[in-house]
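I am still learning, so would you mind making up any protein sequence you like and the tokens describing how it folds?
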Amino acid sequence: MSYRVFDFLKLDEKINLFDIGAAAIAEEPIYKSIINIGAGSLYAFDGDKRQKDQIFKSFGKDIFLFNDLLFDGSDQILYIASAPSGMTSLLKPNKNAQEFFSNFLKIGKVERTEKVSTKRLDDLKEIPLIDFLKMDVQGSELTILENGSQKLKDCIAIQLEISFISLYENQPSFGDIDRWMRLNGFVPHRFIDIKKWAISPTIFKGNPNIPGNQLLEGDIIYIKDPLKLSKVSNRQLKILATLSHYCFKSADLCVFYLIELISRKIIDENSIDEYYKFINLKVLESKKRNKSK
């Protein structure tokens, strides 16, 4: 069965979307549009069982949900914060860093600890290879990547939460993450979000959540190196074009992959023109909707 993405681009099978740390605390994930068009299968992981109902509410029951805590397969201490904070972590909070930021001692307060067993991503035999991965796991991202090389061998795009100032002890920084990603064939494409925060004790307009200029963390998209397309399969090119349009909102990147698909004679030569018409139509529809309000 084919899943119609654009008039000229069909996927032979669904995209394997993975979300590790899947609790939707504050925003809708960028891959939701892939779910909505029926082109993706979601494998969601969240070791905090308090988040289960919210995950099903966000995505429906037609997903694969796992309560495994992914790390390096060892026993660890889980530092449990309030469910709405999203700050439960396998890493111990760095009190010095939390004191630096306004209100973070309150937001990230540990309510209790629990000894837990973790699993390696590569040891999960019941899951397929990953096409797109999103991770927000409060400092465990690099350890999961290092213990998931086999499941990630065909992965072509990854969204990560990265830290400019680490809120947890021994938490890898943005530089550590970026080095691993580049060594494994990925390059940055775009930031989805960059979060700033106020430095304690300053509070702007009486609201501790109004940011100053200090960088705290961000969500970044990495893609397989676009300068090495010879290593990318036809199926992967189709997925990258789909992700570029629906998830990354990067029409120019989408066109880049469509050109490669044309050169490989996978899609028709007029596909670029069709795509430009497709996105212009979307713009016109948006303008019409705004005008009618």
The chain has a mean pLDDT of 91. The chain has nine helices and eleven strands. Residues 177 and 183 are 10 Å apart (CA to CA).
